[in-house]
Automatic annotation (TrEMBL):
Organism listed in the record: Nitrosospira multiformis (strain ATCC 25196 / NCIMB 11849 / C 71)
GO BP, sorted A to Z: protoporphyrinogen IX biosynthetic process
Cofactor(s), names only, from the UniProt record: a divalent metal cation
HAMAP family, per the entry: Coprogen_oxidas (MF_00333)
Name used for this protein in its record: Oxygen-dependent coproporphyrinogen-III oxidase
Pfam families noted in UniProt: Coprogen_oxidas
Record-listed substrate binding positions: S91, N107, V108, R109, G257, G258, R259
Length: 299
């Protein structure tokens, strides 16, 4: 079995397991939408809107081909410009309705860059991160501990490195604030060999449900009112800003002619912006900024 076939088998199975796990919590079913890309490839988008727990959730698998890598993929590796590519992976974003339940993101991916007469250049990337609207220390510790557990079998240096990378990547430079409380993030992973990199990526993907479902179960039924929903919508605006301005995955999808509906399913359904607004000092909303959006080492 080729390296690409191994990756495809894992990613399709991972998508199915995650969707099934989320359906048990929500009590409803995802819509399954198969699609094809005219330039080559396709995928399966699994989307849930107006569920019992998830206001919007999308778990996407894509496997696409192209004649030339988009600019977002060669910015850090200009020597690969002009190569054809094969890219695949699972990407998800979940927006619960309850403001006390955090938004979460996961992406695990594999990419090969090809040129006639040369060996393919391949790499893995991925990670997961948590974006709460109301902070709970036990949730933050649990999420980060599970991320650390996913990486620990591969060496002690991976978690601090990938945690720092996540904090730096999911940062809104124009706001000078983190998007959330982070997690782990990595890209261009190709050493020491395919098996090691693939095993690490599989571990990240398979730890996702363990990282998120206990938090979702704890928070999905916490009572809330209009104040909490209003703050959630305001903070969701930061999520939109990051995804549309800074996110390399969004840029790669759009620049490579990906399916727009699947790429932008990451955006929340209800969002608000305010002019020069700040929370009341000492409030629960203020504590999100002072106690959680600070790039803290939780474990």
């Amino acid at each position: 079995m080729s390296t690409a076939q191994q990756a495809r088998e894992f990613f399709t199975g991972l998508q199915q397991r995650i969707v099934e796990g989320l359906e048990k919590v929500d009590g409803t079913h995802f819509r399954r939408d198969e699609w094809e890309r005219p330039e080559g490839g396709g995928g399966l988008s699994c989307v849930l809107e107006e569920g019992n727990v998830l206001e919007r959730g999308g778990v996407n698998y894509s496997h696409v081909f192209g004649g030339g890598l988009p600019a977002s993929a060669t910015a850090a590796r200009p020597e690969l410009a002009g190569r054809g590519f094969e890219a695949m992976g699972v990407s998800l974003v979940l927006h619960p309705r309850n403001p006390y339940a955090p938004t979460v993101h996961l992406n695990v991916r594999y990419l090969e860059a090809r040129k006639e007469g040369a060996e393919p250049v391949w790499w893995f990337g991925g990670g997961m991160d948590l974006t709460p609207y109301y902070g709970f220390e036990e949730d933050a510790v649990h999420f980060h501990q599970t991320c650390k557990d996913a990486l620990q079998p591969f060496g002690n240096d991976f978690h601090p490195r990938f945690k720092k990378w996540c904090d730096e990547y999911f940062y809104l430079k124009h706001r000078r604030e983190p998007r959330g409380i982070g997690g782990i993030f990595y890209d261009d992973l190709s050493k020491p060999d395919f098996d090691s990199c693939f095993s690490l990526t599989k571990s990240v993907g398979t730890h996702f449900l363990d990282a998120y479902l206990p938090i979702l179960e704890r928070r999905k039924s916490v009572p809330y009112g209009e104040r909490e929903r209003d703050f959630q919508a305001y903070r969701r605006g930061r999520y939109v800003e990051f995804n549309l301005v800074w996110d390399r995955g969004t840029l790669f999808g759009l620049q490579s002619g990906g399916r727009t509906e699947s790429i932008l399913m990451s955006l929340p359904p209800v969002v608000k912006w305010r002019y020069d607004w700040k929370p009341e000092p000492g409030s629960a909303e203020d504590r999100l900024y002072t106690n959680f959006l600070i790039g803290k080492d939780w474990v």
